[in-house]
Amino acid sequence: MGNGSRAAIIGDRRITGLSAEVIAELVAQAGPLWHERHQARLESRPRKRAVGAGAKHQLVFVDRLLATLVHLRHGVTHDVLSCWFGVDRSTITRAIGEVRPLLATRGCTIATGIRLRTLAEVIGHLGASGQTGIIDGTEIRVRRPPAGRKDREKYISGNRAWAPRPAAAS
Questions:
Q1: Rounded to an integer, what distance in angstroms lies between the CA atom of residue 71 and that of residue 65?
Q2: Distance from C-alpha of 96 to C-alpha of 68, rounded to nearest angstrom
Q3: pLDDT band at 165 (very low <50, low <70, confident <90, very high)
Q4: What are the helix (H) ranges across 17-164?
Q5: Quick one: which of 8, 67, 103, 108 has the most CB atoms within 10 Å?
Q6: What pLDDT is recorded for position 74?
Q7: How confident is the model over 28-53, as pLDDT tens digits?
Q8: Structural contact between residues 30 and 102, judged by C-beta atoms closer than 8 angstroms
Q9: Low-confidence winner among 11-15, 56-60, 157-161 (lowest mean pLDDT)
Q10: Residue 30, exposed/middle/buried by CB under 10 A (0-12, 13-18, 19+)?
Q11: Cβ of 96: how many Cβ atoms within 10 Å?
């Protein structure tokens, strides 16, 4: 990722939800921790190559942090982030997996123990805690269970419920 793109992400608070100062603070605090963990992981296994040999990181720590922040804020898929940052999807997956625990040590995590399975449970939790929520109403197609499976009748065959049906010919 180029410096111009990185500056655009850092400069626009709508993308990460954080100011440039907060991002700089995160880089200063979490960057050395990431580097220590990375070095410990390298030293924990037997070397097959000389020190410094092998593939170099395609994403520097700042880009890893930015990809993680964008993913957490907007729920952007790893495929989209891989296109945006110009790396493979597996690189983004690994980067997010490495950075999320570092953010969790700073208190930036999702509360544990809360498991909301239905919309009624979500609304009840938000009402009880006094919080507000945003619900994504994107339609997601679900495969209908095979014949004979329990609750098969709950799934429609893929037709839209609001689509008008043609009148039957008599």
A1: 10
A2: 5
A3: very low
A4: 20-44, 61-74, 78-85, 89-105, 119-129
A5: 67
A6: 85
A7: 988 898 888 888 887 787 877 777 66
A8: yes
A9: 157-161
A10: buried
A11: 19
